[in-house]
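Handout, tutorial session.
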Amino acid sequence: MTRNTVLLSGLLVILLVIAVLVMQKPGERSSSGETGVVLAPIDSLAVDKIEIKTPGSSLVLQKNGVEWYLQEPVSYRADQGTVAAFLHESKSLEVKNVVSNKPEKQSVFQVDSTGTQIKIFEKGTEKSAFVVGKPTSSYSETYARRSGSNDVLIVSGASPSAFSRPAKEWRDKTIFATIRENIKEIRYQYGDTTFVLAFKDSAWTIGKDSTQESVVNSLVSSLSNVRADGFVDTLVQHPPRITAQIAYAGTQLNFFFVKQGEKYLVQSSASPQWFEMLSWHANEILKRKQDIKKSGR
């Protein structure tokens, strides 16, 4: 072995030692004994309260019996599926690495006050509290930090957007829901024009006219679960002129077209709440007679 080879080998060893020391310097660890553990060990069935705080909003969900309700910023029934998905994603967060334990670095990973702060309660007692920060460069993982700890973690299992939904995305957007079997007659009214779609003798008809089966099936499916695109929480004192009415299953839906924004204001006789529906969405159920009849009749 030549002298140069020995020197180069020695230099390589020194560089490797320096690299290891740099990677392991205090406050900048790249791994942890926590790898593989869950960030928030919770029991979904026992959870009865959730608090979510972002720099621009504060949200509180409370379980009442078997159903979830928003308490803040508005009092309203929550979307049960959204809450269930949140709890599933929370308990699925798995710690992969610790990337820093320096408090001054928390802002870099947005796990300080700029992140999404979450508290989860079981039977009235705080069970888990953590902050969700920005996604990593791969966007498949996220930075997070347990409340009270300086360790900045990399976790897998969810994206930041799952924890920072606006309040309207937590609210139940159902305008009216019923089972398909309850829909036997659908009455439409557009101004002075009225027609009735009725199910008789195993077939849907409009008067004596036959209907397009695929169109009616899609319509009945949509009417069995009518959902909004948004909410109107301010008092609607002077709504625009009514555009259309749909009456079925003991309920009447009133539609008011708003040209600005290409949307409808919608109200159901089953609730005092006003809703918004985008035009394309409303048009899925605002059918005209010619849309439903079989051609040639």
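The second record follows below. Compare its token runs with those of the first.
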Amino acid sequence: MKTKQVVLITGASSGIGKAIAGNLVERGDVVYGTSRDLSRNADAPGARQLPLDVLSDESVHACVRAVLEESGRLDALINNAGYALTGALEEASVGEAQEQFETNFFGMARMVKATLPVMRRQGVGRIINIGSLAGVKAVPFLGFYSATKHALEGYTEALRHEVRPFNIRVSLIEPGFIRTGLGKNSRTPRDFIGEYDPWRVRALESITRYINTGPDPEIVARCVLRAIESKRPKTRYKAGREAMQVILLRRLVPASVFEKLIRAHFQTDFGRPGG
């Protein structure tokens, strides 16, 4: 679709969301960038700001209503809001895990549920979910984050089938590590288990290094642009060389070899007790 679109982006105050908003504004679209705290005011110039808390049904519906009152339609929803919970799976409480899912998965589901009636009435729409390479391969010490992105994979694929009769197209973007504030904005469990310290420290240091040396968020924004402009958008778009290489490796090498490569990548195969 190459005509001007009305686009709503969650989590647009920085990083990937900001880059997506900037590209779409430059393209000439009407872009609504949302965040929980508008005082941060870091979204792309030209994007219209709206407050949004994806944990709140009331906030979600108010946001969608504001877009419709001003623009009269909504052509594309881009679900980008999320954060990472770092640490061993055993260290996180059930409540902390639920908070991770509430933002990364159910927040996205709230947005879809609120916007689908609009798109069905229009007879056209695009939904683009920002996933992660962590949704294809689990990352040690990012276990619950990986789980939310795995859930997003299944949700997106099912939704794509269900809404196709209404001329609504759904796609998933799968970035590898991108140079964003993901690490800085991550959360940690309240209770750490000391036995995990050697492996957790090395894994998180590796993750921080991969984020800091990763490609610019623009690489993800370009994938989103392709998904919006394509007449027949793909189910999945891999953003970056790392994403393409890892997915290819997973298909080509035995599972045991792939697991060893993952442990080596995140330095979790060293310093075993009694080793």
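Points raised in discussion: The longest strand covers residues 168-175.
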